[in-house]
Amino acid sequence: MKKKNPTRAILTITGSDGTGGSGVQADIRFISRLGGVAASAITSITVQNTLGIQEFYDLSASIVRQQVEAIINDLQPQVVKLGLLRRIDVVEAVAEVLSHYRPRHVIYAPVKESAHGERLLSPQVYEAIERLILPLCTVVLEARQEGPHGTANQLSSVVAVLLNRGEQPDEAIRHAHELLADLPVGYVESMGRSGELYNQFLDAVERFYYRYADVAFYAEQLNVSSPYLGQVTRRIAGRSPKTIIDERITAEIVSLLTTTTYPLKEIAHRLGFSSQAHLSRFFKKQKGISPLQYRQK
Prior knowledge:
Blueprint: E1 10-16, H1 23-33, E2 38-49, E3 52-58, H2 61-75, E4 79-82, H3 88-101, E5 105-108, H4 123-133, E6 139-140, H5 151-164, H6 169-181, H7 194-208, H8 215-222, H9 226-237, H10 241-259, H11 264-270, H12 276-287, H13 291-296
Parallel strand pairs: 1-2, 1-4, 4-5, 5-6
Antiparallel strand pairs: 2-3
Helix pairs in contact: 1-5, 2-3, 3-4, 5-6, 7-8, 7-9, 10-12, 11-12
């Protein structure tokens, strides 16, 4: 009886996305979900969450080349999927290796921006990709047709599995669209807790604004870092946490000035200011006039 050949690995050459919504993590998940075997070479490590990318650490061309050659020499993948290539020398190294080993299929989805609008590639790098990488590709998926949140990345992963099974490129692309359409609603989207956290922040401000104006206090209450809280409020409301806190305090000062006869010293005491002068400086910075002028007006 003839022994069945084992499934060849699919090599994905791309960046790391810690959220799992794109990058090597999503490639491995989708390839495995469809019964394929994934191998990987990482080109860039990102510092990111569901709010966006904060920083890139791009690996050197030498390290990327060594990763790719180690996999190709040992596992001999016939399907290679290309993702995030951010350096010209990395583009050159990958193109040289692929030109030498000639896998049957090379797939590339040229996503130039992330789901949150961050620029991923410089024009110079993409020019190098067009010149060196695209001529080697069996399939090039246009990112603008595939939508946000890593969908183009996921589509190309599914196409890679189907090509690895022996389907022709046109058939594989059509079949991949059908498979993605059958996924459960929300599976493709990378959902974070930012909306929930934003509402919790507003609730905390409502409870504590008359005692605390420090962003660190609210971040501690919500068990997150101050920078992350800032990312959430800017993403959802376009304002910093400090701005939101100060606006709530200012609104309360306005209410007390216009609906009561409390002296400024009493208002300052009620809202946790160290003195009447402190209250006046804060209010003038927010409104452009002093509390007394506002009350008279």
